[in-house]
Amino acid sequence: MASLFSRIIARELSAQIVAEDEQYIAFLDIMPLVKGHVLVVPKREVSYIFDLEPEELSGLHLFAQKVAKAMDKTLVCTRIGMAVIGLEVPHVHIHLVPLRTVDDINFTRTKLKLTEQDLAATADLIRQGF
Fold first, then answer.
1. Active site residues
2. What CATH class has 4-90+97-127?
3. Whole-prediction pTM value?
């Protein structure tokens, strides 16, 4: 069965996509740690980040860098933090999290519940950074 992220990539599930190319996609986390939390995902479904081919792994990070720079330009934060956990969804993904404090990237904290309108506005803002 396809992962949740593969279903987003196939457009079977909706998501606020902020960037996409032939190999990678970035979209807002629907249960973010902070407003603007983005997930960067390879389109090829692989469960464990270290199972990616070397060129895929480096390409994923370069794509994440482009997204982070767009986030830096448009979101109010000190910098963009990055994390790879790999336990929530069996599909490789990088979390890009706008940071003001180190607690902003604390995965044990309560997640935000934003409206679709809030998510859409945030995605629009990030897309303006490209």
1. 93
2. alpha beta
3. 0.96
* Alpha helical stretches, state H, 75-113: none
Residue 43 structure tokens: 């389109």
Q: What's the full length of the chain, in residues?
A: 130
Task: Give domain limits for the chain.
Answer: 4-90+97-127
Q: CA angle, 72 as apex, 126 and 105 as ends, to 5°? A: 95
Q: Does residue 37 carry a pLDDT above 90? A: yes
For residue 24, what is the enclosing H or E element?
strand 24-28
For residues 10 and 2, the answer to whether their CB atoms sit within 8 Å is yes
Is the pLDDT assigned to residue 1 strictly greater than 80? no
* Beta-bridge mates of residue 96: 38, 82
* Alpha-helical runs (H) found in the chain: 4-9, 54-74, 116-127
